[in-house]
Amino acid sequence: MNCCAPSGGRGAGRPPVHPTAARPETTEGMVAVPAGEFLMGSEDLLAYPADGEGPVRAVQVDAFWIDACTVSNAQFARFAAETGHGTSAERIGWSFVFAGLLPDDFPPTRGVVGAPWWRQVPGADWRRPDGPHSRWEDRADHPVVHVDWDDARAYCAWAGKRLPTEAEWERAARGGLHAKVFPWGDELEPGGRPRMNVWQGDFPHRHPTADGWYGTCPVDAYEPNGFGLRNATGNVWEWCEDAFSLSRDGQQRVAKGGSYLCHASYCRRYRVAARQGLFADSATGNVGFRCALDFDSITRPSARRADA
């Protein structure tokens, strides 16, 4: 189990993927990342050796398209309505929710060993992100959460896209900068101004919300990086296509970017090089995704092309 998100086989089974329901491929809402070599990984002494961030190595990536923002609740709602897709959290009837988002009078439920701030909440899923007392319609422009790796791939297939590889994700998140810690540089809060949605107080008890957000924030919040990506770090973890190479059982997948719960006191995984392995059927209130597309698949001029 990772401190950032509970990861364990939940026995939810594999949801069906809907490749025949795929829409025509389009670059609307995407940015183009040019081909190039970049330095991937980190040897940060304050990072987590067990995560396998290092060594720093030169990686060549072909040009590709990637969503400027993570998939929102409104976008996922259209997918669910058109395909009838049921997520793993909907099928098993519960998911993990951060305890700070639950009402004070919420009945006791099972917590996660070693991370009691994660609570098993009956009825929590993408439609009800914090449990039965919440509705996705109240945060339509926030990232969809409580989706596992298979749910994310099903959406990608419907959209005629795919999940990004870890190398593509990191190349895009760096925004063309060379070996920087964050998508905008090395300083966490340039000029004392928050640049991403992460925890700011004493986790998990005090959060002054200087950035204005306690849980997730809208997918287009904060300034874009050099390639046009928003919220590449913070807000929600993002699924990648790759298997987590350090997984002993081979059943974990790579997630990147950190989330609104990350804080330097216990989790510095809100850096572009940071990574974690999650079981493919993990679904929590701080994990989402964005889509990618092979550059040669389509060359519609509807997306703004990023500069190299």
What does this structure look like?
The protein has one domain: paralog of FGE (formylglycine-generating enzyme) (Alpha-Beta Complex). It starts with about 30 loop residues before the first strand and ends in a 14-residue tail after the last strand. The chain contains 4 helices and 12 strands, in the order ββββααβββααβββββ. It is globular and about 50 Å long. The protein has a 4-stranded mixed sheet with strand order 10-9-8-11. The protein has a 3-stranded antiparallel sheet with strand order 1-4-12, with helices on one face. A 3-stranded antiparallel sheet has the order 5-7-6. Mean pLDDT is about 90; it is low at about 15-20 and about 300-308. Strand 8 (about 235-245) and strand 9 (about 250-255) form a beta hairpin. The chain has about 300 residues and is of the alpha+beta class. The relative contact order is 0.25.
CATH class descriptor:
Alpha Beta
The rounded distance between the terminal residues' Cα atoms is 38 Å
CATH level 3 topology:
paralog of FGE (formylglycine-generating enzyme)
Mean pLDDT: 88
Radius of gyration: 18 Å
Strand order of the largest sheet: 10-9-8-11
Provide the low-confidence segments as ranges. 15-21, 300-308
What characteristic shape results from the CA principal axes?
globular
**How many beta-strand runs?**
12
Structural class: alpha+beta
